[in-house]
Amino acid sequence: MIQQKTGFFEGLAVSISNWSEKWFPDSYVFALLGVIIVAVAAWSIGAPATSISGAFGDGFWSLIPFTLQMTMLIISGYVVSVSKPVEKFIYALARIPSDGRMAIVMVAFISMSISLVQWAMSTVLSALLVIALAKRKDLNMDYRAAAAAAFVGMGATWALGLSSSAAQLQANKASLPDNIYQLTGVIPFSETIFLWQSMVMVLVLIVISVAIAYWSAPKGNNVKTLQDFDIQFDEEKPEDTPSQTKRPGDWLETSPLLTIIVAIIGLVWIYMQFSQKDPMIAISNLNTYNFLFLILGLILHGTPRNFLNAVSKAVPACSGVLIQFPLYGSIAYMMTKAVNVDGHSVSHYIANFFVSISNKETFPVIMGVYSAVLGFFVPSGGGKWIIEAPYVMQAANDLKVHLGWSVQVYNAAEALPNFINPFFMLPMLGILKLKAKDVIGFTVTQLIFHLPVVLFLLWILGRTLTYIPPQF
Question: How high is the pLDDT of residue 1?
């Protein structure tokens, strides 16, 4: 057999992957380490141990509403993705690629495209596409690289689209805490995700991500297929129809009647939301956003039984969110609520350091670096924005930096640590039956090249914008 030459990107990804398979711990371990590191940092600035423990306990349940919203986001995205019409679409897509590398490229492109609309559906649908492709033995597709490609939207583009929690919060006055509203006013989507500068960034990141996915995909003897992992996926059982039911009560479960009635009621409410409000404000409400996808899932599945079966399958993908989000709430509180005798927190000292070395020109780069670092410890787009916004937006006002672009600086930078923080990988990994260590080599390769590109784009594109005072 002729040995194929290993390219630079492929060699880098495989080397990191081999290392991570041996040394990389589960994402829950990272959450525990984050708690300990932040607690030690709070203690080092003089915060009393009682204050640190108090912040840990108080923060543990602080993100419960947001946790439920994120759980519903995952469930609704999963339910839509596993419906029969979407499943047929997935298998039609799976027939397109002619080799493993092109299959991985397709997964990466679809992941990023869908992430701009719904990040949970992006990871779920892309993961299901990976499974459909992996079953094609003729492709000889590397399962690890394909899984990483399914996740690339979460590290590259999701926060620059409609899924952006920060942009959603800023566009809707009712969602904004008063202290942030007084600094920023309402910032519509036209000044954040729909800026031409933001759209240029999205296009550049898509091109770069697809190229890296292609060049880093293993070939030859380096390929590890689905069969090499000895993972089995159960075949779907045929759906029941009303004529196949044995009990009278089963008829309601297998009939579309109830679904039709409830869907009509839900669609009327959705119509009212979008007709009575600016559509951009309506879609920025996370509850409306989730409701829209749940009703869509209900319609696509047709019967209550099919819908409930899909929800049951979605629940395991939420386990990491349910157990780890409380710990991230504790981390956020310890960073902001555990204060020393001067009334200052860890977050205050970090922010002051970065702001003190910034000016109007360097602000996007410096705050981008800060937001990316903090994002590793607090991987919550909306929750972290509430922590950062008061001092980030105050600095933006003081330095006369475009406020909408400041939100996009946050969005582009805070997505970057997703490439190495396994937290948001959990739903996708649960579906693919993999561990973070299996894909981290390929996501780290993406990060290595994304980081300088993102920081450069934040700087150069920011220079084309002028400051506009807050609009109330």
Answer: 39
Residue 117 corresponds to which tokens in the numbers above? 């609309």
Model pLDDT, residue 446: 93
Task: Name which of 462, 349, 370 is nearest 416 in CA terms.
Answer: 370
Q: Which residues of 40-62 are buried (b: 16+ CB within 10 A; e: fewer)?
A: ebbbebebeeebbebbbeebbeb
> Which residues neighbour 246 within 8 Å (Cβ) at sequence distance 6 or greater?
none
Q: Return the domain boundaries, the chain.
A: 26-231+252-463
Provide the pLDDT for residue 132: 93
Burial class (CB in 10 A: 0-12, 13-18, 19+), 237: exposed
pLDDT on residue 53 = 95
Give average pLDDT by consecutive 10-residue segment, the chain, 472 residues: 56 67 69 88 94 92 78 83 88 94 96 86 87 92 94 91 83 73 88 95 96 91 87 64 64 86 94 82 73 92 91 81 81 84 84 77 89 72 71 83 94 89 73 84 91 95 93 81
Q: Can you tell me the distance from the alpha carbon of 445 to that of 441, in angstroms, rounded to the nearest whole number? A: 6
In three state form, how does the secondary structure of the chain look? CCCCCCCHHHHHHHHHHHHHHHHCCCHHHHHHHHHHHHHHHHHHCCCCHHHHHHHHHHHHCCCHHHHHHHHHHHHHHHHHHCCHHHHHHHHHHHCCCCCHHHHHHHHHHHHHHHHCCCHHHHHHHHHHHHHHHHCCHHHCCCHHHHHHHHHHHHHHCHHHCCCCHHHHHHHCHHHCCHHHHHHHECCCHHHCCCCHHHHHHHHHHHHHHHHHHHHHCCCHHHCCCHHHHCCCCCCCCCCCCHHHCCCCCHHHHHCCHHHHHHHHHHHHHHHHHHHHCCHHHHHHCHHHHHHHHHHHHHHHHCCHHHHHHHHHHHHHHHHHHHHHHHHHHHHHHHHHCCCCCCCCCHHHHHHHHHHHCCCCCCHHHHHHHHHHHHHHHCCCHHHHHHHHHHHHHHHHHHHCCCHHHHHHHHHHHHHHHHHCCHHHHHHHHHHHCCCHHHHHHHHHHHHHHHHHHHHHHHHHHHCCCCCCCCEC
Which pLDDT score, from 0 to 100, does residue 252 have?
79
Q: Apex CA 145: angle with CA 140 and CA 147, to 5°?
A: 105
